[in-house]
Amino acid sequence: MKTPMRRKGRPRSTGSTTGQGTIQALVRALDVLDAIGNANGMTLSGIAAELGQSPATIHRILSTLEARAIVENDPATQTWHVGPSAFRLGSAFLRRSGVVERSRPVMHALMESTGETSNLGIERGGHVMFVSQVETHESIRA
Question: What mean pLDDT comes out for the span 100-121?
């Protein structure tokens, strides 16, 4: 019996995953997205410096993310920003979990009883991400 021929193409790389079974290129892309989101926009060189990657690597990642509208580039300031597809993906978490809808009555009651704006935060990995807010009706806000 004849052994099937191996398909031609790029050989499997031994260095494409990290020790935890994650894909290094994807980890880098997510690091880029985190950096942009945390800084409210960054230049290519700023991202490369912060992440310790070459500008060429960061540019390839940004180009890929831009093609999917996950990031956007502002040519006037040469800064990269989180794009609408990133918002859509993040909103899917809120829809799935229902946490905002379930929390709204409590947040509204808290705002009414204190006269202050009420915020809803979700803790993940030691970081708090604010996902909803009920603003006070008071004219002076802290």
Answer: 95
Residue 89 phi/psi, 5° resolution?
-65, -45
DSSP-assigned letters across all residues of 120-135 = EEEEETTEEEEEEEE-
Which pTM value belongs to this model? 0.70
Q: Can you give the residue ranges of every domain in the chain?
A: 24-83, 98-134
Q: How many degrees, rounded to 5, is the angle at CA 31 between CA 29 and CA 36?
A: 100
State both tokens at 99. Answer: 């946490």
Q: What is the pLDDT of residue 6?
A: 57
What is the CATH T-level fold of the domain 24-83, as seen in this structure? Arc Repressor Mutant, subunit A (1.10.10)
Please identify which residue in the block is written with the tokens 């004219």.
139
